[in-house]
From TrEMBL:
The lineage of its organism: Eukaryota, Viridiplantae, Chlorophyta, core chlorophytes, Trebouxiophyceae. Residues 12-38 have a biased composition (Polar residues). GO terms for biological process: protein ubiquitination. This is Uncharacterized protein. One of its GO terms (molecular function) is ubiquitin-protein transferase activity. PANTHER family: COPINE FAMILY PROTEIN 1 (PTHR45751), COPINE FAMILY PROTEIN 2 (PTHR45751:SF11). GO terms for cellular component: nucleus. InterPro entries: E3_ligase/Copine_domain. Transmembrane segments: none annotated. Residues 1-38 are annotated as: Disordered.
């Protein structure tokens, strides 16, 4: 099973429409925040079987205009690949210096924020 999290635009897959004007809506699909920035964050569902489920959940949480999806592979192949690329350990192994997935998500997080 693969877990997806992140952000994706409803129209980002239409590469020919790069200069298209963004869609406007009379009402936002999310509630206006009433709490401080440090308390308004919450987890969103993160187990999906297809891209449409990911898009639906992002829209439901007010993230429909975002442009990034990150997928993490939690399958057995991470052990086989890690034999050759991560000193014989699974790519998900917990180590003091972090694993490849932690490194990449850290870079993405620092870049976005």
């Amino acid at each position: 099973m693969k877990r997806f999290f992140g952000l994706k635009s409803d129209h980002s897959s239409q590469s020919n429409d790069y200069h298209r004007q963004p869609q406007t809506h009379s009402q936002p699909s999310y509630q206006q925040p009433t709490q401080s920035a440090t308390t308004r964050f919450r987890a969103i569902r993160d187990r999906f079987t297809n891209l449409e489920e990911v898009q639906h959940e992002l829209r439901r949480n007010g993230l429909e205009s975002s442009n990034l999806i990150v997928g993490l592979d939690f399958t057995k192949s991470n052990e086989w690949t890690g034999k050759y690329s991560f000193q014989g350990r699974s790519l998900h192994a917990v180590t003091p210096s972090g694993n490849p997935y932690e490194e990449v998500t850290g870079v993405i997080g620092r870049t976005l924020f």
